[in-house]
Amino acid sequence: MSDIRTRGRGWAYAGTIVGGGLSIAANLMHSFVPPADAPEGWTPKVGAVVFSVFWPILLFIAVEILARVIWPEGRWYKVARFGGILPVAIVAGYVSYRHLSALLASWGEETATVYVGPLAIDGLMIMATAALLVIGNNTRTTADTTTTTPAPVPAAPVTPAPATVANTGSGHSPRPPATTQRHDTSAGGPVVIVDPVLDAEPVTVPAHLLTTARFTMNQFAGSIGRPISADELAAYMNVTPVMARLILAELGENVPAITSAHLNGTPAGAR
After folding, report:
1. How far apart are CA 247 and CA 41, in angstroms?
2. Which residue from 157, 155, 152, 194 is spatially nearest to 175, judged by alpha carbons?
3. Residues 6+ apart with CB under 8 A from 262
């Protein structure tokens, strides 16, 4: 199916070619019509025969310039367009009309045909050219709209704000970088470590880790039947034990104190 904006383009070209061809042929044949006082054996001059085809060609070119050229806005451009090109088209059209009319009269056509007939030939060429102009404007307008309309820019993905672990100590002041303190409880028992993470300044926990942790905790509790520990959560989520404890604290879970088992898997007393 052809585009509705260019429908009839073939007929417009056909009208231009047929109208222009008939006009050229008629003007050429008119040059062979002898004048009323022509002597015996009269033949047209070569220059008159050649020049006779120029009038429809001049008319066609003038109409094309008036119709197809995109003239800028401005007074002098309008003067050049309508004051320069338009008279050329009018003169060429008038001479071509007179030639066609005289040709029809020499054939003995009736008066109405002599006066109206030439309008059909040159008028077909002019109307077909105007139709091509309309089709060209429709196509150009569509192309300009497609070029100048910006493509929609997809919205940037919204990243959830990371959660913040608040400092639970009521009288805590900003403290220096946390250090790990050890307290031996017995000769054979584990070493209890004062957790520097939960007692430090607020630490940011990424929100996507909280979402993953909730899912992991629910799956673990449903399959094992007990809450997940910090070490187990760290192993499942591939994070450090410290981060796992921060996540559990943020989610409101009870976090046991760090023991020597959390330090690289080596008891503190064995060092």
Report:
1. 116
2. 194
3. 193, 231, 241
pLDDT for res 157: 58
What does the alpha-carbon distance between residue 4 and residue 225 come to, in Å, rounded to a whole number? 70
Q: 194 - beta bridge partners?
A: 181
Q: What's the rounded Cα separation, in Å, for the pair 242 and 26?
A: 100
Helix 111-148 with 54-68: angle, nearest 10 deg = 30
d(CA 18, CA 30): 18
Domain edges within the chain = 4-148, 163-270
Q: Say what the pTM is.
A: 0.45
Identify the pLDDT of residue 88.
86
CA distance 125 to 164: 80
Counting every residue written for the chain, the total comes to: 271
**Angle, vertex CA 259, rays to CA 254 and CA 260, nearest 5:** 160
d(CA 67, CA 53): 22
Burial of 98 (0-12, 13-18, 19+ CB in 10 A): middle
Mean pLDDT computed over 42-71: 85
Helix (H) or strand (E) holding 224: helix 207-224
Which pLDDT tens digit goes with each residue over 92-108?
Answer: 889 899 999 999 999 99
What backbone phi and psi angles, to 5 degrees, belong to 191?
-85, 125
- Calculate the dihedral angle through the C-alpha atoms of 111, 114, 115, 117, rounding to the nearest 10 degrees: 130
